[in-house]
Amino acid sequence: MKTIKTEVAVIGGGTAGMTAYRAAVSGGKKTLLIEGNVFGTTCARVGCMPSKLLISAADAAHAVREAPPFGVQADGLTIDGRAVMARVRRERDRFVGFVTEAVDGYPAEDKLQGYARFLSPTQLQVGDHTIVETERVVIATGSRPIVPEAWRAGDRVITSDDVFYWDDLPQSIAIAGAGVIGLELGQALHRLGVRVTIFGRGGNVAQLGDAAVLDVARKVLKDELDLRFDTKVVEVVQHGQQITLTSEHKDGERRVEQFDYLLSAVGRQPNLDQLGLEHTGLVRDHHGVPEFNKYTMQCGDSAIFIGGDADDERPLLPEAADQGRIAGDNAARYPDVRPGLRRTPLSVAFTDPQIAMAGASYKELGASHPGRFAIGQVSFEDQGRSRVMLQNKGLLRVYAEYRSGRFLGAEMIGPRAEHIGHLLAWAAQAGLSVSAMLDMPFYHPVVEEGVRTALRQLAHALADESKHDDPCVDCTPAP
Question: What is the domain partition of the chain in residue ranges?
């Protein structure tokens, strides 16, 4: 077994790890990037990019089905599952290629293949071939989908990773989990002609915490999907190329059904269990994640930093990149550790309607601003442009602080939520007041006019005035 020395060791070659590596190198430190599987990102291989390719195919099919109300007749819709999946894989491989090209550009001596394990805070064993002696470490080992042991009934119980290696679409699939992954893939497969049933143990939809928005989301999605809330999967048995699934509703009613696959979308767990963290001396939480400062990504006062899905905070690519950059910067200049830029939270579920959360969530404000924040809202049912497009479903709720009038955050389900979420996240990060936001330009007719409607109501709530009662405020001049 050989021994090599470096100043910074980065464990994990995904989004956070690659960003941390570049940051540490930019900081002038000799840096080693260690990867046990393949270099590249979850997003490009089995995450955000291939899922959006599948969703785009589903959107195309849905647009054909929804054309008649516009007076457009499109007969003879045919979905070629093999062609759909061939494009998904082809374009996915193209995105992966861009990532691996970047890694190929790193010096060969800066890369080491093999699974790393701590022997001490400054010593790692990689595979059965190398000991790495290092001054600082960045943990960026990512996460993996959770599959409960009781469900491991053979090759017909899968995770989202497996979907993007299909050659063809199945006839049927059960999905356990009504989070972002379960809903995105479930709706897409449903629109592509697959029989889909989604089981949610509780009543949650994605990460929504505002009860009003959550109620609308449940109704809108259930109108299209076989979405069963308060229902758990209690038994999974594989018979040949199918599984027999037994589910149980909270009222005790059981159903036994057959599907081609069961997709486990009940969450992800950080890849920390084989890392030998017991040899680091780090304090860890009950999930085994080291305690860390979210502004510096430093674990305790050690020379070990963490970033990306490994820290189990916000499993999103932009967050992984930011955390990796902060961790790499601070690993390079340790012990001169400094806070880095943590951007305003923003998350989007690419369902239809889309779901977005920007800034502080309703639940967070309930803890940080109890009784000290106001709410405004708009329904998209009668919102002008949304109705024109026949996409008039959903609800936006916006929050602001009493006294200061500072905009705090929003939760929504509705059309163009990916764009509205960005605007509201920018406003929150900029510290804008509601009055300043209302001074911004709003074109007509656009979906963003719904934002103005909600902000007007929010301004009245802040002033404790009666609510605006104009039935079509989108169609009136701005105040």
Answer: 2-144+269-333, 149-266, 346-475
